[in-house]
Amino acid sequence: MLISTDIHSFFVLLLAMITLGATFFSAYSILNVVRLRNVRLSWKAGKIGGYPLFATLFLCSTLALGGIVYHNGYTQYYPIVAGYGWIGFNWFLASYLASKRFITDNGIVKNINDPSQTVAWHQMTDYVEKKNDRNSEFVFIYQNRHPDQRRENTCIRLELNIPSHKLEDFKKIVSYKLGKSMSPNSELIFNVGAFD
């Protein structure tokens, strides 16, 4: 009986630590969004209607579990289900903000929690637009400058799927920021995968 109580206490403590970690992660994501300056355009880019796949499934499962617990009157499980619900909410919020695309005056932010996925306009050397039925995909080529001048700069590819209702606004921003130095040739056909 004592071992069972110790295991239960351990799992409750573990749940509390994960809940605290999820809270800090979502707060970090919110602060990164608040710190963005001069956002001109943004859109959601998750897998389920623009929302993140696993975080959405976890949150929906937790809400369903909470409904079952409430319906059956399992009051002893209310704090545990509330903890899982809070984890699910924070995970969903952090994943949703991280999956959003932000276009600012300074550049493109593909993931607010990963600085390596933020590219300034002046780093871009070329771009290509690919169109399909649902949306357009822009492939930007940019240079990653190494702080060590002895190492050679590398070209990296950044792919963005632009929703059709944001396409014209996005094209205006790209034309304003990059149009003076470069413009895509829509009639040119080549293998975009060759940029890997």
Notes on the structure:
There is one protein chain. With 196 residues, the chain is an alpha+beta fold. It is 45% helix and 22% strand. It has helices at residues 2-35, 53-72, 78-99, 167-178, and strands at residues 39-43, 101-104, 107-109, 118-120, 124-131, 135-144, 154-163. The strands form 2 sheets. Strands 1-2-3-4 form a 4-stranded antiparallel sheet, covered by helices on one side. Mean pLDDT is 85; it is low at 186-190.
Strand order of the largest sheet: 1-2-3-4
> Proportion of β residues?
15-25%
Count the DSSP helices.
4
Q: Percent of residues in helical segments? A: 40-55%
- Largest sheet, if any? 4 strands, antiparallel
Count every beta strand, where a strand is a DSSP E run of 2 or more residues. Answer: 7
Terminal residue distance: 59 Å
Oligomer: single chain
Q: What shape does the CA trace take?
A: elongated
Q: Radius of gyration, Cα only, in angstroms?
A: 22 Å
- Secondary structure class reads alpha+beta
List low-pLDDT spans. 186-190
Note the run of SSEs as H and E. Answer: HEHHEEEEEEH
Please, what is the average pLDDT?
85
Tags for this model:
196 residues; alpha+beta; three-stranded antiparallel sheet; 4 helices; 7 strands; 22% strand
